[in-house]
């Protein structure tokens, strides 16, 4: 599996994993800041669809380089066994499964 970082982005192109080196005058390591800078027209960002879906629908953000979409990455949720599962954790697990399943790639 290829994982992107601030200096390189990974893509699945023509059935092959490809890494592209990127650079710029700004480098951030959290999604909120990256999204804020993209919303302020300060550059492009590689963020999960579930994180920017509303901004894309409203037109605040536009998708560019769509043919260079990154390979989907799994989201893992670790929690105690069902026998010890608190109602709060159960509610969180149910919410995340329901909310994030709409973004599942085919």
Task: Please characterize this protein's 3D structure.
With 106 residues, this protein is of the alpha+beta class. It contains three helices and two strands, in the order E-E-H-H-H. A two-stranded antiparallel sheet has the order 1-2. Strand 1 and strand 2 form a beta hairpin. The relative contact order is 0.14.
Secondary structure elements and pairings:
Blueprint: E1 8-13, E2 16-21, H1 31-39, H2 49-58, H3 87-101
Antiparallel strand pairs: 1-2
Question: What's the quick description here?
Answer:
The protein has 106 residues and is of the alpha+beta class. It has helices spanning 31-39, 49-58, 87-101, and strands at 8-13, 16-21.
Keywords summarizing the entry:
106 residues; alpha+beta; two-stranded antiparallel sheet; globular
* Tally of helical runs: 3
Give the percentage of residues in beta strands.
Answer: 5-15%
Please mark out the parts with pLDDT under 50 across 5 or more consecutive residues, or reply none.
none
CA gyration radius, whole angstroms? 17 Å
Overall 3D shape: globular
Please state the average pLDDT score: 82
